[in-house]
Design goal:
The protein is of the alpha/beta class. The longest helix has 20 residues. Helix 1 crosses helix 2 and helix 2 crosses helix 11.
Amino acid sequence: MKIELEQVLPMEIERRSFEIITSELNGRTFPPLEEPVVKRVIHTTADFDYADTLTFSNHPVERAMEAIRKGADIVSDTQMAKSGINKKVLASFGGEVHCFMSDEDVAKAAKENHTTRAVASMEKAAALGKPLIFAIGNAPTALIRLYELIKEKNLRPELIIGVPVGFVNVVASKELILETGVPAIVARGRKGGSNVAAAICNAILYQMDQSRAGVNQR
């Protein structure tokens, strides 16, 4: 079998990838602010199921952009997601990325309260006292605790990205977030991951950065 390879320069690979994604979506369209999010997640995962499972509730991209312009921080539940989020662009708007999962006080609180570090890290984040976007790609217990904190009126996130991957409580925890009335981007079902959480954050940040620079968006 003869294998034919496209001759593509490194700087053109992403552009070409998005062209392929657009083509394989077969004319399917999405609201303007949501389309870059859907396409970047597909670009990150090569999984077109996200075109159907990504759910946008209460104008989440618009609300996230407003919050980021006011200096909102992003809280992730994994170091992997934190590493993947474009911190330079976020910092240009006055925000930073946090992941408290490895903090000693979080480990201590989780042990004392017989819960997970993800739960303890959400509680620590809630005490920051500033506008927050949560990017959850791994721990459904983090989403469950966010739901509880919202219901207790101890937290009102600017956006929750709920895309944990797995089997135990994953589907249910995502549905709980959609019930809160908080702006949310959720990958319904079992799929997701830290890479998806970071991709969603970056899709929002890149739109803002391009808009500020006067660049045509993809």
